[in-house]
Amino acid sequence: MAKLDATSTLKRLRNRYRLVVMNEDTYEEVVKFKLSRMSVYIALSTLFVLLIGLTVALIVFTPLKYYLPGVGYGNAKQIKEYRTLKLRTDSVEKELLFKQKYLDDLQKVLKGTVVRLDTNKLELPKTDVDNQ
Predict the structure, then answer these.
(1) Which of 35, 80, 92, 102 is the most buried (most CB within 10 A)?
(2) pTM, whole model, 2 decimals?
């Protein structure tokens, strides 16, 4: 396998190319650019850094940061309200599941389908009232 030489790589980066945009109907040159691989890499890298910088600036210097949960902004009151609403939502969801199961079981009984009874023996703790 041929080894890559640093000088040949540098030469390939500096080779000049011409990019021509032509009108298809008249074959007239509309725009032409003289490019090298290095200039394309530099332009794309600059564009990438600028886009990252603009995105960070947009998040840091605008109220948009308050809508991003992972950034850590927001006041303690909003976080407490969020946790309270989450707990309430979970409890409402549990209650809805219990009611749905109850209605399904009631519907089975009313239709007359065979309902499997719970025949497990309950072991209740003895109290002082039971001993008297």
Answers:
(1) 35
(2) 0.49
Note every long-range contact of 72-81, with CB atoms under 8 Å and residues 24 or more positions apart, other chains counting: none
What is the helix (H) or strand (E) element at residue 28, kind and residue range?
A: none
The pLDDT of residue 2? 58
- Which DSSP string do the residues of 59-90 spell out, in sequence order? HHHSGGGGG-TTT--S-HHHHHHHHHHHHHHH
Whether 129 shows a pLDDT value over 70: the answer reads no
Please list, residue by residue across 73-88, b when 16 or more beta carbons sit within 10 angstroms of its beta carbon and e when fewer do. eeeeeeeeeeeeeeee
Separation of first and last alpha carbons in the chain? 98
Tokens of 97: 């599941």
Q: Could you tell me what percentage of the chain is helix, strand and coil, using 3-state DSSP and rounding each to the nearest 5? A: 60, 10, 30
Q: Note the pLDDT tens digit of each residue in 57-115.
A: 998 898 888 777 666 676 777 778 888 999 999 999 999 999 999 999 889 888 888 76
Q: State how far the alpha carbon of 19 is from the alpha carbons of 23, 31, 74, in Å.
A: 13, 8, 50
The Cα–Cα gap between 70 and 66 comes to 10
